[in-house]
């Protein structure tokens, strides 16, 4: 499975085989190229205010999610199962992407105008859910269900590459625009910006919060960290009572926990 915890550990320990390394490098190049092209195109044109989303029939959304999920999971030689661990959260996620008003009634402090952050341990299917939603959007040409998927590690990697030549600020600008899903938020390392160590994704989230306030631009995220752990990572240098990222996370995201058994 792409980007699995087990494989990331093998990479860090230098235990992946030559074949695994070649496949990983090829996949990362392809994913990075698509993401960079998407943000370059956004950077070259004025970003419009987000259009009003339509309400998708919730029954249709659930059936399409189930059908698409079965095909998606089958490619990994597994079976898609709805059980007591995931049926409630999947129902809520379908209501959110269907832009169904019932989402705001079911979820405490839920707001359809905000983005979505899925929080859970490894292997519960957070990344897969966003992939499935994106596939539905592309298949049926539904703009509100399409967004660019990019890992937080890709953002920091591209910044480091560009920073060898220039200031790297345009990388931040690219990833601050458009509707984006950041996978594995918080798993990325700090970057070196001309001798200064900093949390790049903190700056990206700050800029995306400003765009959310001004243009309604949504952000989606998956993370294995708790909100407290994210705040500790990105706001560790802040004074007590001045947790800017904490305020912005709650201000721009509907936060949904997905705790349950590992499905890998």
Protein traits:
single chain, about 260 residues, alpha/beta, five-stranded parallel β-sheet, 7 strands, globular
Short summary:
The protein has 264 residues and is of the alpha/beta class.
Number of helices: 11
Give the strand content.
5-15%
> Kindly, what is the distance between the CA atoms of the first and last residues, rounded to a whole number of angstroms?
8 Å
* Averaged pLDDT: 83
Number of strands: 7
Q: Outline, from the CA principal axes?
A: globular
Structural class: alpha/beta
Question: What does the model show?
Answer:
The chain is of the alpha/beta class. Helices cover 51% and strands 11% of the residues. It is built from 11 helices and 7 strands. A 5-stranded parallel β-sheet has the order 2-3-6-1-7. Helix 3 (58-74) packs across helix 6, helix 8 (169-176) packs across helix 9 and helix 9 (200-215) packs across helix 11. The longest helix is centred in the N-terminal third of the chain and has 26 residues, at 18-43. The chain is globular and about 55 Å long. The mean pLDDT is 83.
Topology:
Blueprint: H1 5-13, H2 18-43, H3 58-74, H4 87-97, H5 102-106, E1 115-119, H6 126-139, E2 148-151, H7 152-163, H8 169-176, E3 180-183, E4 191-193, E5 196-198, H9 200-215, E6 219-223, H10 227-234, H11 244-252, E7 253-257
Parallel strand pairs: 1-6, 1-7, 2-3, 3-6
Antiparallel strand pairs: 4-5
